[in-house]
Amino acid sequence: MDYWVDTNRIFPPGERDSFPLVHMTQKWEILKLILSEGFKPSYCRENITNDIETKSACFPMISFSNVTTDFAISYQKSYGTLGIVLNKKWGEKNDFNPVLYLERKSDLTNDIICNFKNIAGPSKEQLKNSLEGVANDFKDIMIRQHIKVFGHSKNYDGLLLRNNTLLAKKYPFGMEREWRKIIRKVNIPYFLVGEEMERKDEFNKLLKDIRIDYELENLKSIIVESDWQYKEVKEIICEKFKLEEFPENIEIKINGIRHVPDEG
Fold this sequence. Notes:
Largest sheet: 4 strands, mixed
Distance between the termini: 61 Å
Number of domains: 1
Strand content: 15-25%
Number of strands: 12
Strand order of the largest sheet: 1-4-11-12
Oligomer: single chain
Helix content: 25-40%
Structural class: alpha+beta
């Protein structure tokens, strides 16, 4: 069949709903607490490298992936097999931000790492004043912006560790489309470095009463592994929001990835 290409034709972007925000976890008890109380932040270690130099720090955060539920179940099982799915509007309202993914050899990555030498020297108290806006000269503004960019950045791929076990040498973190919230509160260190990172469990105690909760209108789906969990999450949601019946528009998805046939 003969044809010609109309190079003047312009197409609007395809319409689709935004991907939701998915949070996966390994433990049933943790999922129950999230459903009942909301999300509790914790200090997480983040590394940025250009394969020559590596910068590391711990930030008090909560993280989600901006992916489909099926993608999270299939490709993010190293994080856990249980989960909660919220709409993106909830993340926008609660100050979550997409992570900046860095190719380790890029000019941008090299600049971010090299610029750390320009903020070296100030005491922890001076850094705190810069981050909180108490001090506002040019260097303070640069320090504040640089540390915030670091806190919301990640190498596109890298080592995937779980419980000090190496699961992958070149895991594509960028495919996770992470959204992150870093807690900013008085008396909560914005970051930990050096020997403080080894004491992150101690610093996590400062976060024990902080929760970022959700509303019923934000809840899209819950991921469980069994029929009894299916029933229990219905009870938890009904009790939390004082409902007589579980909403039909909220999906409860049974994740069968760890199911083993009963041959008995």
